[in-house]
Amino acid sequence: MIEFVYPWAFILIPLPILVVLFAPAYKERKSSIKVPYFARLVDVTGEKPQTGAVLLNRNNLQRLLIAFSWLCIVTAIAKPEMIGAPINQEKSARDLMIAVDLSGSMSVEDFTLPNTDIAAEPDGKVNRLVAVKKVLNNFVKDREHDRLGLILFGDAPYLQAPFTDDISTWQTLLNESDIGMAGQSTAFGDAIGLAISVFEQSETQNRVLIVLTDGNDTASKVPPVEAAKVAAAHDIKIYTIAIGDPTAVGEEKVDIEVLKSMAEITGGKTFQALDSDELSQVYAEINALEPQQFDSLSFRPRVSIHHYPIVLFVSLYLFALFIVNVRIRMTLAKQGHSQSATGNNADSSEKVANHD
Predict the structure, then answer these.
(1) How far is it, in rounded angstroms, from Cα 272 to Cα 344?
(2) Which domains does the chain have, with CATH numbers?
């Protein structure tokens, strides 16, 4: 299928006809002298008589070539494009931000990872961050079409990875995180605020935030519930996951009520995971609640072919120029041959006269 970018250019097709009609060939008149005994004058001077005006007359083939060449030029100006078959592309319709707590309490070793290659203590226990990394790595493998972001928070939140569809890079950045690298306290209220600002730079309307924490908020400038209200105003759904021992006291105690309020305000849900199996079940449920969504984009590839009529025009021009040069050379060769023959005849006549 071929389409023209500038189809209006075809109005130029009758332009040469208009030029011929309204701008005819220039003709010039000159005075001439009538000479008696013209034939004798020609014999005396040795000049050959010539026509007084030269008219360029084209045959039908030449006219056809000129018209076709002009059509090629106009077609190139119209810029034809070859339209390919439709191509469908799908991209994620969701931005998924995951905020991970790196406070000191994440070092508590109360999670088990059966059948894993991760080094554990002699009793089979690993710390909470190791368990979170393991389960998160499995979770994001099934989110290959989502754009993922990563926030790490402790005394303050930090954007570890902006939204990206490069899952392997996201996993590398997660695995390189360590307990205490963001501070020893817990500021998940500020982490929500940072997530909101990152979401605002995204054009995707489906926005989900997953927050993992094992303690109550102790360092945020903005209370978590207030931050959740702002998130709801920006159409951000929050899933909160409480990990660790619910009977702990002090900063390590998880404030379940606050987490529930945050999830309810934004239309999300709260989960509690006491071991790696429950944590895996939490992500499985989030997968069911938030199935992957896609934006389908369909387009047809367009390839410009305007150079083809130009190549055809140049080829015709060069071919015509070659033919003209050949004809001129042949004409000159014939004239030279005729003059040589005339000269030979004259010499023969002169010899015969002298002999007589």
Answers:
(1) 120
(2) 2-84+303-336 (no CATH), 89-298 (3.40.50.410)
